[in-house]
Structure formats: structure tokens, C-alpha cells
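Complex record, two chains
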Amino acid sequence: MDCSEAKNEIVALLYGEIDARTRAELEAHLETCASCREERDANRRTLQLLDEWDAPPLLVSASAARAPRHRRWVPALVGVAAAVLAFATLAALGAEARVEHGRLIVSLRWPGAAAASDPVEPVARAVVREELERALGPIVEEIVEVDRRAAAGQSFLVHAIDVRRSEDAERFQAALRQVALGAAVDVDRTRRALGDVVMWAASNPPQPSGK
Amino acid sequence: MEPSDDELIGRFRGGESGAFERLIVRWDRRVLGLAYRLTRSVEEARDVRQVAFLRAYQALATFDGRARFSTWIHQVVLNLCRDRARSGDAQDRALARTAERPTLAVPTPAETAERGEVAGAVAAAIAELPRAEREVLVLRHYQGLQFPEIAEILGAPVSTVKSRMASALERLRDRLKDLES
């Protein structure tokens, strides 16, 4: 392998796109060629510098706004699954839980007749309700929060589209103004040319033909 | 499992309009990234994306599948960026002729580097590369395409693509030497 070939294969080596045979040949060359070794090391440093140039955040967020849509729903789905499980457990226990306006409401249907005469019952009921609300509260909050974020994300997208549309409209208007300006200049020019013709015609009345 | 591009194209041609949206979501970031690296303008990159996807929409109905969608969409974006660069050059020349407006002063890599903006200096140095080398560099380093795929997109032999990459790195090394420390 000569230096010119090595130069190309060094690039392939740095990107890990080199087959075993070519790699062996290149490494044999590098063993004996200081200039190519320097080329490899310098290229490696240059490639590191290239990584400094990131895409602008605007570009990332424009596409990321759509990409994480599925991810955004993952915590919601986990929350919903946990909530469904918890609500099913409550139902099996004879209790009921529901969410109203983002708040968790737990009601307990205690085993009736015997409980009515039990003085401990109201206390036990309050403790259980409190425990349930404490356990389920964060899940409900998470669902509400995710919902709120989803709504905010949607309105951000709508806003971004509106901004883009108004930018396009402005550009279109500017282009129209340019066209109108050009047309006005043309009309003015034509008017002046016609004026010149009229003036010339007035000062050069047609001569009677013939003798 | 995520359907392949070919599958999505097939579904789109079969009348499933959502398949096209999925294709766009999949390619959006890469198309924008490529256009941005080649034009260095978010606004231009968005315009290029819009036209590229519009062309894809029009072309997919008759897409014969001889080329891969990946190759095809990269070629479309490259061509759009080349057209814009050409018309930009023409506008600059026209402006220079009329001399009504001062020519835009684009900072050189060294000037940008002096201000401590490494990223800006790298971007400026890449912008100064010959077009063929810049395209290879962006496709390989920032788009993460392999040399054979770049060769397919550009219609050039793999050895030529590697050689352009080597030249690009050599030029960049020279222009960015002040930043290497």
C-alpha cells in the first residue's frame, strides 16, 4: 500500500469502515511511514473538532416535538395501568374511586349491618380512605400533569405552525410589494414615454401630403 | 417491529395516507439536519424540507422502487441545496453589480475562532470547502452514512468518496489549526 492509498484508507479506518485485510495492509504501512501516522492522528483530532458543531436547538426541537410523542405517553400509560389496577382492587374490596376535575374521590362501601354498630368503623373508614387517597393521589396527579403537558405541547405546535404561516405570508406580501413597485415603475416609464410622444406629435403637426 | 421504508411506501400507494406521515416523521430530522449543514440556515433548511417532502409525496405514487427511498430523498435534498446555493450566488453577483447594498460580510473561520466560537469556526470552515467535499463530509460525519451509500447517492465510486473525505479533512485541518490545542 502506498501513501496515496493509505490516505483514503485512514479515513475508512477512523470511521470503522475497513475490512480486515485492508486494515492489516494499512497498519503495516503505518508501521513504516511516519508521515501517514501523523496524517491519521491529525485526522482524528479534526474529527473531534467537527463534533463541536451541533445542530441548532430550533432544528432539534422542531423535529423532536414530534419524535417524543410516543415517549410522552409512556408515563401516562404506566400511570393509567397502575390506576386501572388500583381501581380494580378497590372494586374487589367493595370500595369505589373516581377522578373528578383532576381530584381523586374515594368512597367506601363498608360491609353494612354489622359495621353500623361498630364504634371503630368510622375511624377505620377514615384511615383507609386517607391511605387510599395517599396511594392513588400521585398517580392521578401524574395523569393530570401528563395531560396538561400534552395539551401544552399541542398548543406549542399550533403556535409554531401559526408563526411559520405568518412568516410565509409576510414574505409573500414583501414579494408582492416588489412586484407592485416594479409594475408602478413600468407604468410611470410608459406614461413618460407616451407624454414624450404626445409632445413630439403636438410640436410636429402632420404636414398636408401632396403638393 | 417498525415497518421498513419500502413497506410504508407500499401502504401509502395502497391508499393508507397515514403511512406517508410516518415516513415523514421518520425522515424529518435527517432531512432537516442535512439541509441545515449544507445551507447553514434554519429557514433555508425548513424550506428545503418542505419542498423535499412535497416532491416525495408527488413521486411516491409512481415510485418504482429501483432506488432505495433513503438514497432518493438524500439526492433530492442535495439537489435542492445545490440549486439554492447557485441562485444565492447569482443573487450575490447581482447585488455586487448594482452596488446598492453592501456585500454581506461572512466571518472567516479565523475571525470566528478569535471570538471563541469553536462551533461557528467549524461551520465556517466546512462552508468554505469545495461543494463535492462538503457534501461527502456532511453525509459521512453528520448524517452517519457509510461510504458505499454515499457513493450510491452521489453516483461516484467509493474510492472517490473516500478521497474527497480525505481532502476535506486535510483542508479543514489547515483552516482549523488554531483551534487544535
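Note: Residues 69-98 of chain B form the longest helix (30 residues).
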